[in-house]
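A common beginner's mistake is to predict each chain separately and then try to dock the pieces by hand. The better habit, illustrated here, is to supply every component at once so that their relative placement is modeled jointly.
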Amino acid sequence: MKISDFKWLFGRNSEFWPTNMKTGMWAWVGHRLTGLVLVAYVFLHLSFISTASLGDGEAGFDDLMATTSQPLFVLMDFVLVIVVIYHAVNGLRVVLFDVGLGIKRQKLVFWIAMAVVAVLVVGGMLAIWHLVFPEGVA
Amino acid sequence: MAEQKRIATSKVAGTWAWFFQRFSAVALIVLLGIHIYISHFSGVGEETGEEPLITFGEVSVRLDQLSYIVVDYLMLAMVLFHGLNGTRTVLFDFEKFARHQKVIDITLFVVGAVTLIWGIVILFPFITSGG
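With all components supplied together, the output reads:
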């Protein structure tokens, strides 16, 4: 299998080449990528919770939680927050179109959705930031 | 005639999958909101733990209440359906995977069923510890 075999998918003339994509297509690709990330996260989340059922049980779980509350991990949580918010708001946009609302103004609805995403991400950042920079930012 | 019937059946199945994907989507937004609120903002169970750390004791206090257990298990079921059905949709857009629809359907179903049981069982230590 050669890289050039994937030209239809990633090549300059493919639908997915960034400048060949329209707004809705971007939204669609983003929805799928964030969706797959979230599926991976669910399994990670469950495996972390499983530590309470393993050998050390209670202590093992508390150790893991202490590790994952360190700034670097909270920063990764923040990335997760962005992914979740995008997927949720864009998903609502899809549901809206499915029930027949807003299709005629789909571009406007997309940008309104992205504005809502931006506001929620800033809100999430404000809620989480003191855990990423416990000493405060100079 | 038989062929027609088969297509009709799969169309019905597809519509259900489509509907439940939307239904679970909206349910998950509500459930995730509750999940994040009780995990990080409500302060329930925090008297036993050191803020902002999540501890076994803290989670046990929460999972003493039936409503918390219901929210978690409901979320588990919804997220597994939504995530795996979404994965299925993504896979079948690639001809390579669409050719093996049946194998993938069975695999995803088994993964979902096993993970559901796994997810239910791993909360038992928290539920039975008595907070």
